[in-house]
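Q&A log
Question type: sequence-to-structure
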Amino acid sequence: MPAAAASPQATIVVLGGGHDDPTLALLAGLLPARTVPIEILTAATTHDPARTYAGYARVLAKLGCPNVGHLHIDEAYPADAPTTLGRLREASLVFLTGGDQERLTELLLGTEFLRMLHQRCQHEAGFVLAGTSAGASALGSQMLVAGRGWRSLLAGGIEVIPALGVLPNLLIDQHFAERARYPRLLHALLAHPALLGLGLSEETGVIFRPGQPPEVFGDEVVVLVDGRHVTASNYAARPAGQPISGKGFSMSLLVAGDTFSLASER
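Response status: OK
Response body:
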C-alpha cells in the first residue's frame, strides 16, 4: 500500500455515523461548484448498495448537486476496472458509505484504485474525500473490527487490522458514545501505541483541511485519546482473557468548533 503524506492536500471528512444529511450539506459547501462530479462508493455496504446510493443521490440533488454517480465496487465489479479508475480520476468528491469496513479494505487494499486515491489526497487541493461510520474508520492507519463491552478490556478481546492509511497515524472508531466503545479504543492504543485514537459519536465528525488543524463538527462529542506516553502497561505479557492495564493516557472531549493537534501532547 502506498504511504500517505503527513499533510494531505485534499480535504478529508470523517463522520461517526447516524444521520448524514447535515454532513452532505457541509460537503456540498466545500465543492468549487455544485455541478462537479460526485461519486458514492458503496464497497462497505453489503445490503442493497444501489438503494444506499440512491438515498445519497436524492439528498445531494436537493442540495443542488445533480452529478452524483455510484462507484460500485464489489466481487463482481473490481476496483481496478478501467471505467472505475476513470471515474475516480474525474470525481471532485468521493463519499465512502457505512457498512462493513473489513469488506471495504479487502476490496481496496493493494489496488491501483487505492494508489490513485492516495495520490489525489496527497497532491490535489481541490479534492474532497469523506467517509461515514465504516467508511470513516477505514481511512486511518489501523481499524477496529472486533471488541465489545467490558470484554474488550481483556487480553485478546479486540481485533485491529490494517486500514486504508489515508489519514496516517490515526485509529478511528465510530458510533463511539452510542455503542460504549471507550474500552476497545483504549485497548487498541495499547496494542498500537504509536497511533492517536479518535472516537466519533454519531452526527459528529472531524474535518481535515490542508494547512489547518483538524476541526470538530456536529451535534455530539469527539473523544481524542493519546496513548503514546502510556507507562506501566501489562499489555505485552498478559495472557488471553486477563484484564489489561496502562497508565498515562491523555484524553480530550471535543465539540463543534474545537480544533486539536496531531502532534504528541506532551
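Response note: The chain has a mean pLDDT of 94.
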